[in-house]
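Late entry, evening session. Most of the bench is empty. Finally got around to the prediction I had been postponing all week. Sequence below, unchanged from the version circulated by S.P.
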Amino acid sequence: MEIRKLNSLRALAALIVFFTHFSDITNWLGGVLGGGSGAYGVMLFFLLSGFLMSYLYIEKGFNKDNIVRYFSARFARVIPLYLVVVLASYLLSNNGSSVLYNIPDTETLIAHLLFIYGESVLWSIPPEIHFYFIFTLFWAMSKNRTGYIYLSILAVMLLLFFTNYPRIYGDINGVPYNLFSVLRTLPFFFVGVMLGMNYRSLTIPYYLRKHWFVLTLGFIPLLYPAFSPINSADKVRMWLSYEVLLVMSSVFFCVVFLVPDNNVLLANRFGDFIGKISYSLYLLHMPIIAKVNQLDVSIELKLLLSLLLSVIAAAISYQFFEKPVANLIRRKVSNRPNSATSQA
């Protein structure tokens, strides 16, 4: 069963990142939408990722065929475009071009291919890949040991809190690694998993399912450093603040569980469209903004051109690369002999 609202949440996440980077690069509105505020869009992506993995797979049997389908679906969704962007960035960087991202040497390329380091927006892909494997541990416990899932999540979150998120980064023989970026994202994945585990079973009273809960999305801009009423370091700690985790998780819960599925602001064609191309939009928008910013035109026209060109590039990428490649991979997997056939 598709939860259509999630398309618009994914679209919102991508647009938050886009406007943050546009504000940072061009100093639009004095940069008030920047300052790392794109983190809140990425947090939504990670909440969505954990939720969908749990919602789609946790009740399925933990067996070889389902595991193969799970990893092939995850691989088809994320890896092909990532590899193209990484390899193109490496080739262009070594030819003196800064069109994409800076991957200047073989060591940095290896780090990207091993998912232990990411340049610019590519940093968020390694945590996603790492969590695919972590989720299989939860999945394995889901049938008879569900309580261990909650216990392990609690233990890890307490450990991260009391160790202040260990800064594990550096390089090995020139190959950079940054596991800190993985550790700081885990709480958002974990909350998404727990919410996904309970989406079908949690009964929400009819009187709580109200369209006005969509207004809770307005709490996200209040977390931005330029707008936040919070005077503590939490307004700049972002990933390391459990207060921020609480706010983002509460907003996510309200939208997914309390807003009716037919809410016009969340269930619409625009949200469906941007949600589908959100991954391409996320990976491709920064180079486009940087190039448009070199034009001698007004800031408003730069914004319009950057958004339009980013959406067009993302739509082309999704329609003519991501979608066909993903469908090809899924067909290959669905046509493979199952375990019973291969033993016959």
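Two things to note before I forget:
The chain has one domain: 5-335.
The two ends are 34 Å apart (CA to CA).
Will write this up properly tomorrow.
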